């Protein structure tokens, strides 16, 4: 028996918004004054397309068009996502592009999974395997890496139904959808308070300007000097490159707070904190739309969806009818394209930008050592690596550090991230690849030979994979979105194919136009003044993030 409960949370009472409040709330409520819950933390994820579950309301999409079982996610990963040749590097981008993507993703979405008794993990290749909340992945007997038959995976928690109206299963988002640096400040008041000094607007840091200690999620200590880091998002210790970015933005908050305090001696702690927070959120939005996204989507999509910032001053674009909430398909599939950019190692560079420490990525998962070591100079060295070394290319291939050795434990049990992504899509009831093509007004394939955005080789691989038995017709409708879209040929000057470009463009448009606190908005109460906006946007075409190779 597990202690989860489908109706565990009672929907919150109607929210009374203070329309005069100048700043974002920590949990994102009251951003949209007509729909105060939109984009707020701990609400159900919204959807672009309705869920497609096998039984119509909650069981994973495991069955294809003609009633046959879909292929194992690990088999798909082996055939479509295994990189056999030497790693391809991106000629223009640094590892920072990948790392910023992960950091930004954690600002947008965190999907909780079902837990067992006393908050333990379910044993989905053990005692819990046949339970309703387990979705283990079958490993084939001829697997190129694993010599076992089962990869454990738990379903995402079902969201409580608002007013208990029946309907299909939905998933939760624990963090604010808005790009509001919730990674720095947290998505609930308790966490936010625990990160503040309540003096001069400053955030708590450990000695040598490091992240504070006290993180409660999984974390292994390698030396006596190590400690589990704490930040606005609990995933901070997952991998050192991520911890380094958290630290960068905490330091930026404190740097800004000190300067604001110096020029505004009358401001109290709260004002300095909120004003610094407002600037850090604006910087995050600015980098996202002017340096990070253009590399992913390419100029045509950036312009078509109005995603670039203005180059001079205000931009009145707020649309109160637009729900900014992060859509299920973005968290469960499209924004996971970045897993293909994850390198096989983590590194620390010295001030001459030469490597002084390089570790295989599987030796760094959940270990904050590299970040915290050398009294914080490890984090500086990680940042030098991130802004110097070439990123792994974004394509259908995944490095073995994430495809075979994800979260490898002492018994060498590990996971396959692209396979998990495919299985997660089924868990969330994401409709198949063709349904998304249709939604995007892209040509839909009725036969495998009609696949428009795949080369001949990947078309062949897809048709082999989704052929179930010799008696049943193959059908491209069954292709999982993650697999089908990752295998597309990328559009020129971008990192993704047309299907993910469409889904991501729609999402980032909603996150911009549906945010009342978007930094370019000319709103006297909540926004910046003309001078401030000019200062934030003037450097639009200068790189401040380090995502490009110089
Ligand atoms: C640096 C190494 C990274 C590791 C080890 C990692 C690992 C993971 C893991 C284990 C999950 C949860 C999978 C599941 O159970 O469904 C996940 C989710 C996710 N990852 Fe990554 N990831 C990394 C980088 C990235 C990057 C670069 C991006 C995007 C640019 C990204 C985007 C996402 C998204 C959108 C989710 C879903 C989050 C949620 O809904 O909770 N990740 N990642
Ligand atoms: Ca957020």
From TrEMBL:
Task: Give the subcellular location.
Answer: Secreted
Q: Where would you say this protein principally sits, based on its record?
A: secreted
State the Gene Ontology BP annotations.
Answer: response to oxidative stress
Q: Give a GO cellular-component term.
A: extracellular region
Q: CDD domains, from UniProt? A: peroxinectin_like (cd09823)
Q: Name one GO molecular function term.
A: peroxidase activity
This chain belongs to which protein, by name? Answer: Uncharacterized protein
